[in-house]
Amino acid sequence: MTAAPRPSDLSRPNALEAYWLPFTPNRAFKKDPRIITRAEGMYYFDQNGRKVMDGASGLWCSNAGHCRPSITAAIRAQAGELDYSPSFLYGHPKVFELANRLTAMAPKGLDHAFFANSGSEACESALKIAIAYQRAIGQGTRTRLIGRERGYHGVNFGGISVGGMVNNRKQFGTLLTGVDHLPTTYNRAEQAFARGEPTWGAHLADELEKLVALHDASTIAAVIVEPMSGSGGMVPTPKGYLQKLRAICDKHSILLIFDEVITGFGRLAAPFGAERYGVVPDMITFAKGVTNGAVPMGGVLVKKEIYDAFMTGPEQTIELFHGYTYSGHPLACAAALATLDLYREEGLFENAKALERTLEEQVHSLKGEPNVVDIRNVGVASAIDLAPLDGQPGKRGYEVLQRCFHEAGVMPRLSGDTIVIAPCLIATADDVSVLIEGVRSVLRAVT
Ligand code: PXG
Hints:
Blueprint: H1 7-11, H2 26-31, E1 36-40, E2 43-46, E3 51-54, H3 57-60, H4 69-81, H5 93-105, E4 112-116, H6 119-136, E5 144-148, H7 157-162, H8 166-169, E6 179-182, H9 188-191, H10 207-215, E7 220-225, E8 228-229, E9 235-236, H11 241-251, E10 255-259, H12 273-277, E11 283-286, E12 298-302, H13 304-310, H14 330-345, H15 348-364, E13 372-378, E14 381-386, H16 395-408, E15 410-411, E16 413-415, E17 418-421, H17 429-445
Parallel strand pairs: 3-15, 5-6, 5-7, 7-10, 10-11
Antiparallel strand pairs: 1-2, 2-3, 4-12, 8-9, 11-12, 13-14, 14-17, 16-17
Helix pairs in contact: 4-14, 5-14, 6-13, 15-17, 16-17
The structure holds 3-[O-phosphonopyridoxyl]--amino-benzoic acid.
Residues 59-60, 118-120, 123, 152-154, 226, 230-231, 259, 261-262, 287, 298, 413, 415 line the site of 3-[O-phosphonopyridoxyl]--amino-benzoic acid (PXG).
């Protein structure tokens, strides 16, 4: 017998209180909620049917714009054909196809793909593979992981330990031991209002030599950095920095991991940041744009030498004790294959090159607007730093965000007092001006 529904089940279908929103000031949000009900192309629609332009590609994931019919159709068809199959001990055709497509897109030598379901899981997977690899090649003392201040590698324990954002770390105890951090490459005095990659800062890669001197190379497994730091306030990497980091890692046999969860799939006007900078890391993490955000997926592209180091011992033994129920989920694979087709058919990584120049021109025109203290850009990503209100960090940024949504009809991304504009790669020059002029009007209205 089914229990009769409790009255509350029916009387409060859309009450806000039960839902604990992630990375959101819940009380402020619930007083003034922003509810998205539909999306199409460059636009979101709210519960009143009002159009708001997406200025952040969702959360850096909907690179081809929203609700693209070919991706939607692929997901629908896959759901009707194979909804789920076990990821351990079995495979399905699309997961192999996707691994082949991704490794073909990746820099030469990254010949294997391991799948997860988010950027956070991608990072945990890469860090675990790094430590296990060192052990597999007889370097078991190499367990230390090096990240960077302001780095963001998701929210799981490995990721926040190597990550460098204090707010993401301070609530959660002692984290992983045996990590250390490179300094951030951001320096406002040297780099303010730089266009593209700043020319100052490559020397900061040499700080890795200091960490090697402090800990000894024999204790260090890997270094993980983002080719452009996204959540840490959108910080482009200085010219020459990644090349130096690669050279120092090679010198000391330390693995180099690029976290390309944001920078993969066209954000830097190339398939991966690795290609833009001509630096081949040992592993690349990806997520977000791989499925255009339509189904969760993440993963790691791994160098052949790393994979091969695990492929020893009796053939019936598991080589890596790691994986997820939903690794390579059929719906995510279908979405990813359709997404990669769309990126290619529409030449979106090429479009991104022109869009990068348009965005650069337009975003820097905000220099001189009230409270603007720095503007940065690289690829199809840009950031405007606002001076924080005295003793109330984040308040001015939050007000700008609210007004952008409710009054200007644009949705940039907010990180503290930094406004990020990173449009979908289908954006036209006119779309970019809608976003920039929307933000400009709000900056002029906010004190
Ligand atoms: N690595 C990087 C470089 C990321 O940017 C993650 C890992 C974690 O991914 P998941 O899928 O577990 O969230 C990210 C996520 C923002 C913003 O506005 C950035 C992220 C997520 C949400 C917001 O900067 N990046």
